[in-house]
Amino acid sequence: MGKSHPAHKPAPTGRTNLASCVVAAVFLIFIIMVACIVYFAVFKPKDPNLAVNAVQLPSFSVANSTVTFTFSQYVTVNNPNRAVFTHYDSSLQLLYAGVQVGFMFIPAGKISAGKTQYMAATFSVRSFPLSSPSLPPGQPEILGPNVTDGLAGFRIGPSMEVESRLEMAGRVRVLHFFTHHVEARSDCRVSISVSDGSVLGFHC
Asked: Residue 117 and residue 31: Cα distance in Å, rounded?
């Protein structure tokens, strides 16, 4: 008589496939989490840092309560990103009593990753009359400098105050695939001596 052989049980392929899928899903989630952490910690795009180092007026003249001068501003631009910062939409404008009196476009350019670039902008300001704020009835005129409110104010007498607005915008390309828009702005109040055009100080 022949011997009977025990029946072989089929391999649990279903459970094995399920376990493999779970392991693969966990591994994929782990890789995605690590990629997100690296992106936000290292490659997340940041806006450039602007610092105004100096303000000068190479030429200055006053005649018949009208002032004309040349405005120069020296700026440090730092790119904190790990990719090149390409700026192409940047400008510097000058305001007096809330009215634009000077403007210039800043030429497009590039700043390497993690580098700092020094920029100088100089332009002529069209002539404009010095004005004084209106006084309430019965209040005597103040002969000294008038401290103003906000960035749109002004001073007359020994000094006048203007506002400079520097805006830089561009893009940063991360990992050669993702392009992000970045921008920065710096507003400064500049106090100028009316007698000789010297810069008494500025605050940004």
From this structure: 37
Asked whether the CA dihedral 194, 143, 146, 100 is positive or negative, the reply is negative
Mean pLDDT of the chain: 79
Question: Hey, is 113 helix, strand or coil?
Answer: coil
Place of tokens 């993702």: 178
Highest-confidence segment of 20-34, 53-67, 168-182: 53-67
Closest CA to 100 of 92, 89, 112: 92
Q: Say how far apart CA 198 and CA 57 lie, in whole Å.
A: 7
Give the mean pLDDT of 116-124.
95
Q: Are 190 and 204 in contact (CB under 8 A)?
A: no
Highest mean pLDDT among 41-45, 127-131, 156-160, 176-180: 127-131
Residue 152 is given by DSSP the state T
Q: How far apart are CA 192 and CA 204, in angstroms?
A: 15
CA distance 204 to 187: 6
Distance between CA atoms of residues 63 and 76, nearest Å = 34
**φ, ψ for residue 26 (rounded to 5)?**
-65, -40
Confidence of residue 146 (pLDDT cuts 50, 70, 90): very low
Residue 127: how many other CB atoms lie within 10 Å = 14
